Amino acid sequence: MDFLIAAEPILEDPTIEAHLRQFCLVLSVSLGVATLSRVFSVLRNIPYTLLLLLVGLGLAVLDVRLINLSPQLILFIFLPPLLFEAAWNLNWTRLKQYSVPVVLYAIVGVIICVGSLVWGLQAFAGASLATALLVGASLSATDPVSVVALFRELGVDKKLTTVMEGESLFNDGVAVVAFNLVLGIALGLEQFDVSVTIARFLVFVGVGISIGGLIGFGLSFLTQRFDIPLVEQSLTLVSAYGTYLVAEELGGSGVIAVVTTGLILGNFGSRIGMNPRTRLVVSEFWEFVSFFINSIVFLLIGDQVRFDGLVEELDKIVVAIAIMLAARAVSVYGLGFISNAVTGPEMDLPIKGQTVLWWGGLRGSVSVALALSVPAVLGDRQEVIAIVFGVMLFTLLVQGLTTKPLLEYLELLGDQPIKLAYKQMTAQRVALTRVMNRLDEIKTNQEFDPEFVGYQMALVEGQLSEVKEKMAKLEQQNDSIREFASDQLREELLAIEADTYAEFIRAGQLKDSLTPLLDGVLPDRIGEAH
Questions:
Q1: What DSSP string describes 25-78?
Q2: Residue 143: CB atoms within 10 Å
Q3: pLDDT digits over 188-239, tens only?
Q4: pTM of the model
Q5: Whole-number Å distance between alpha carbons of 241 and 266
Q6: What's the alpha-carbon Rg for the chain, to the nearest Å?
Q7: Topology classification of domain 21-414
Q8: Per-residue model confidence as pLDDT tens digits over 288-309
C-alpha cells in the first residue's frame, strides 16, 4: 500500500505523462505503417523503413513534431542494439572470406569519402573548413539497412550481402572515430597532425576491439555453465549496451566494441554455450528488437527534417551529393580492383556487384546522429545538419527506392523463390517420413487392421516419393540449390557437435570447451566431397 501511495505522485507528473503519450504515439504510428506495408500489395515493393521515412517527412510538412530526436537517443539507445543484431547475424566464415574488400571499403573508403567531401565542399560550394570536415566525417558512415533487407528478401548473392553488411558494420565504427578526430580540428581546439591522428585512431579501435573481445568471450564461456534461455537472452541485451558504454568510458570506440562482441557471441558463444532452442529464442528476440528500433528511428528521422534549412543550403547539398557519389564510385571500383587482384578469381567482386555496392551505399541514422551531435558553439552547426539531412534524404529516397530496379536491370536477383520452395519440400519430406515411421510402429504393434494400415502407408509413401522426386529434380537443375542443401546440412552437423560439448560442460563432465573437429573436416560444398 505504501508503494502505491508513493507511486501516485510519479504517475501524476505531467512531464512523465506527456513523454509517455509521445512515445505511445510514435510507437503506434511506426508499427501501424510497418504493418500496412505488409498488408497492401502496392506498398510491398517499398522497404518499410523507407515508408516510415516518407510518413515522417509528411508529418514534417504538416509541422507535426512527434519527439525531439537528440544524438544521444540514437548513439546511446538505438545504435548499440542495431549494431549488435547485425553483427550477431553476420556469418564469420563468410566475413573472413571477404575480409579484404570489407576492410578496404571500411577504412580506406572512409578516408576517400572524407577527403573528397572536404576538398569538394570548399572548392565548389564555398563551405568553411569546419563545415567540410564535419559533413565529410558524418557522411562517411554508410547505413544500408533497407538495402540489406531487400537483398535478403530477394535472395541476392551472399557475397554482395556479406560485403555490404560487413562494410557497414565496421565503416560505422571508423566513421564515428573519424568524426571524433576531426571535431577538435573543426572547433579550433587541435591542429591536424598525421602521426597523432593515426595514433589516436589506433587507440580508439584497439581499445574497442579489446573490450568487445573480452566481454564477448567472457559471456560465451559463462553461458556454457547453464541453460536458461531468458537469462542468456537478457545477457546479450546487457552486453550490447554495456560493451558500448564501457568502451566509450575507457576511451575506445563503442561502435567497434559492440560489433566485436556481437560477432563473437553470434558465431562462437551461441555455438558453444547455447542449445538450438536457446539460439532460436535469442535470434528471434534480436529480430524483434531490430524491427522495433528501425520502426521508430526512420519515422523520427523524417519527422526531424527542417525544409527551410534544406532550401537555404540546396546548392551545397547538390554539390555534396555529387561529390559523395563520385567518391563512392572511386572507392568501390578502385578498391574493388585492388581487392580482386589480392584475393584471386574465386573471391572476385564482379563489376555488376560493385555497381550495386556503389549505388546501395545509403546514409541513415548514424550520419544524422553525428550531425546532430555537433556542439551548439559551432556557428556552422545548422549548415552541417542541413547538408547531412539533404544528402541522407537523397540516398534513402532516390537510391533506396531504385535499388531493386537496378538489381533487375543487372540480372542480380537471387533464387529466393526456388529456395523457399525447396525448404517447404524439405519440411514435407521430414513430416511424411515421421508419419511413415509412426504407421510402421502401428503395423508392428498390430494396433489397427494390418490391411487398413498398409493402405495408409501406400498413400503416404506415394506422396513421400513424389516430394523426394521434386527435390531431386530441383537439385539437378540448380547448382545453387545443391550448395544451399549442403550448407544447411553442414550447419546442422556442426550445431549437433557444439551442442554435445555444451551438454558435457553443463553436466560437469568437462571443464573446458573443446575445439570443434568437424569444422575442418566437413566439406563446404557437396562437390568438394568427391
A1: HHHHHHHHHHHHHHHSGGGTTS-HHHHHHHHHHHHHHTT-------HHIIIIII
A2: 25
A3: 777 777 788 888 888 999 999 999 999 999 999 888 888 788 898 999 999 9
A4: 0.77
A5: 16
A6: 26
A7: Na+/H+ antiporter like fold (1.20.1530)
A8: 888 888 878 888 787 777 888 8
Q: Is residue 154 within 8 Å of residue 404, measured between CB atoms?
A: yes
Q: Please tell me the distance from the alpha carbon of residue 86 to that of residue 294, in angstroms, as a whole number.
A: 12
Cα–Cα distance measured from residue 162 to residue 92, given in angstroms and rounded to the nearest whole number: 10
Cβ pair 260, 209 in contact under 8 A: yes
Residue 526 is classified by DSSP as: G
Amino acid identity at 443: K
Measured between alpha carbons, how far is residue 518 from residues 94, 230, 372, 487 in Å?
17, 29, 49, 14
334/340 Cα distance (integer angstroms): 10
Q: Dump pLDDT digits (tens) for 308-352.
A: 888 888 999 999 999 999 999 999 999 999 998 888 777 788 899
Please give the mean pLDDT across all residues of the chain.
82
Residue pair 47/281 in contact by the 8 Å Cβ criterion? no
DSSP state of 375: -
Backbone angles phi, psi at 13, to 5 degrees: -65, 120
The terminus-to-terminus CA distance of the chain in angstroms comes to 74
Beta strands in 83-241 (DSSP E): none
Could you list the beta-strand ranges (E) of 279-438: none
Instruction: Output the nine-digit C-alpha cell for 491.
Output: 550447419
pLDDT higher for 520 or 471? 471
Angstrom distances, CA of residue 394 to CA of 320, 321, 326: 11, 8, 15
Which amino acid belongs to residue 124? F
Which of the two residues, 8 and 273, has the higher pLDDT score? 273
* Residue 130 near residue 140, CB atoms below 8 Å: no
Orientation of helix 400-409 relative to helix 145-154, angle to 10°: 30
Structure confidence by residue, pLDDT tens digits, 496-515: 777 777 777 767 777 666 66
- Name the H helices within 446-478: 450-477
Instruction: Tell me 374's DSSP state.
Output: S
pLDDT value of position 448: 80
Helix axes 254-264, 158-186, angle to 10 degrees: 160
Sorted by sequence, the CB contacts under 8 Å of residue 271 that are 6+ apart come out as: 494, 495, 498, 516
Q: Using the 8-state DSSP alphabet, how is residue 253 labeled?
A: -
